[in-house]
Amino acid sequence: MRKLPTGSHGFTLLELLMAISIGSIVVTAVYGTFHTAIKAKTRAEETMAPLRSARYFFSAMKENLQLLREDAHVDNLDCETDHCSFPIRDDNAPMHVSFLLNSKKELIRERRQDETNSSNTIGEARQEILGRNVTQLHFEKQVKTNTSTDARTVLLLISVSFASNPVPMRYDYAIFIEKALLP
Question: pLDDT per position in the chain (183 positions), as tens?
């Protein structure tokens, strides 16, 4: 057998086993922390998803109400308990937009071309999903009349509820339509 030269040192089996053991403990601790952080991030995203959907829905509703046609009558703002539709102006042609909850529990914005000065809609509807896992959508329209000008303004109250973990979430929003609608 050959002897190791003097002054050169190698690792003993015991030193290698100790290094591997310490390395395993460090890797396990880092993995545990990483796994916990990923679970917390996923839980936070699941909790925030309904809020993002509600904000997107309310924003879309507000933007479309700002496009309400000049000749809109207060009765053209058809907001019942489970849907809301109204005429809007568009560069290409008069449009009719509806917000509703479909059978798949999705918030939908539906746009279709309509005839001028008519609530009868024609053409194919373009649908956009604004939110998912919705358990309830509720609209309430309150009409106020200015007695001196006979102009009407509308307060639109909207409530949307989502099925989410760990508890269902409900968001409420109010839109005041300042534009005077024809009586």
Answer: 666 566 657 788 898 999 999 999 999 999 999 999 999 998 888 888 888 999 999 999 999 988 888 777 777 888 888 899 998 887 777 888 999 999 999 999 999 887 644 445 456 788 999 998 899 999 999 988 877 877 778 889 999 999 876 678 899 999 988 765 555
- Give the single-character DSSP code of 106: -
Reduced to 3 states, what is the DSSP secondary structure of residue 54?
A: helix
Residue 143, both tokens: 């009409």
Q: How far apart are CA 72 and CA 154, in angstroms?
A: 12
- 123 vs 110: CA distance, rounded Å: 12
Q: Are strands 78-79 and 83-88 parallel, antiparallel or unpaired?
A: antiparallel
- What number of other Cβ atoms are within 10 A of residue 153's Cβ? 16
Give dist(CA 151, CA 117) in Å, integer: 19
Alpha-carbon radius of gyration of the chain: 30
Task: With CA atoms as reference, report the closest residue to 130 among 49, 54, 51.
Answer: 54
Phi/psi-derived region of residue 127, left when phi > 0, alpha when psi is between -120 and 50, beta in every other case: beta
Q: How far is CA 37 from the centre of its chain?
A: 24
Rounded to an integer, what distance in angstroms lies between the CA atom of residue 84 and that of residue 110?
Answer: 10
